[in-house]
Every structure is written in C-alpha cells, then in structure tokens.
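input
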Amino acid sequence: MALPSRSFLCLRHGATDWNRQGRFQGRTDNLLNSDGSAQARAAALRLNDIAVSAIVASPLRRAVQTADIVGAALSLPVAVDDGIIECDFGSLEGQSIRDTMRKHGLTEIAQLVSILPADGEPWAAVSERALRSVAAWQERNRGAEILFVCHDAVMQAIAERLCGSFFENRYGTPFRFARSGDAWTVEEISQFGQI
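output
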C-alpha cells in the first residue's frame, strides 16, 4: 500500500441534515445545512495562519461546498479526487446509526466496521484508496501543505491505518496527520492555526 511521505491536513465536511439526524450518509449526495456552512467558515479561520498551498476535496457536494468556502477564504482553487469519497455503506445508507448500533449490540462507533454489509465497500478498501490518493497528491506536489476535505469514515480509516485507532472527529474541524519517522499522530488544529 502506498503511504504518505509526510504530514498532511484533513478536514471533515460541515454538517448536513442527515448528519444531524444521525443517519448513515455514505455516498448519498446531500448538501450542507446552515450549521455546516458556518462550520466550514470557522474551519477557514483556523487554517488562515497555515501555509496551505493546495485543497483537494471528495466529489460529494457536502465536501466540495466545505472546500469551496475554505478555498475562497484562503484564495485557493479546489481540486476533486474520487479517492477520498466517503465509504459506501450499502444497505445501511440512510439508516439510523444509533438504531443500527443497538440492533447489533455495539457500544462504540468504531465497532460499526465489524457489521458493514456485503453490498457496501469493504473497510480495508477505504483506507487503501484514500492513502493512495494522499500519497499521489504529495508526490505531484512535493513540499506542498495539502488540505484534504473529506469524510469521517475516510479520516477514521486513515487514522486506524496510520495511528492504530479511531479519534474524536468533529464537523468542520481541521486535523494534521503528523509523521515523525515511522510514527503517526492525529492533532487538532487550534483556533490560531497551532497544533
């Protein structure tokens, strides 16, 4: 598997109505709601003091909208890459996450990967394609600080693969996947562009 050669930034898109309703959203192409747009604007402020030189978004509209808001604030264009699209949740799409967890006796969000349906995307494929995309963008843009605007499952799959566990991810909150030697950590970008 291709792994990123250096640290990179990730931003979960702002919230949609389905997010607020606690549904599996996957490839359903919902728009940001007013909260989500505000979260994207707040993310842009956090990233203002970081020398971001490229923005890459998932093709889903909620990610593109988020990336466009950040890109406008940072005066950067937005590229789109299918490699960081959200996980396909198959027959779970649109279902209640809470009800699904209760039905299967799950107590943690991370446990959902154990019950993903056969008609969706295999969990291992999510991190593989996402990390391949990150590595390819880094190869084409050597030394650039790249921001990937994507989705929770994508970011969790990356974190599990690089850092060994899930992390607390929030809408419109930028994180740095930081590499030190062979070790990786996930660090939230603070209000002033610091980690």
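quick obs: The two ends are 28 Å apart (CA to CA).
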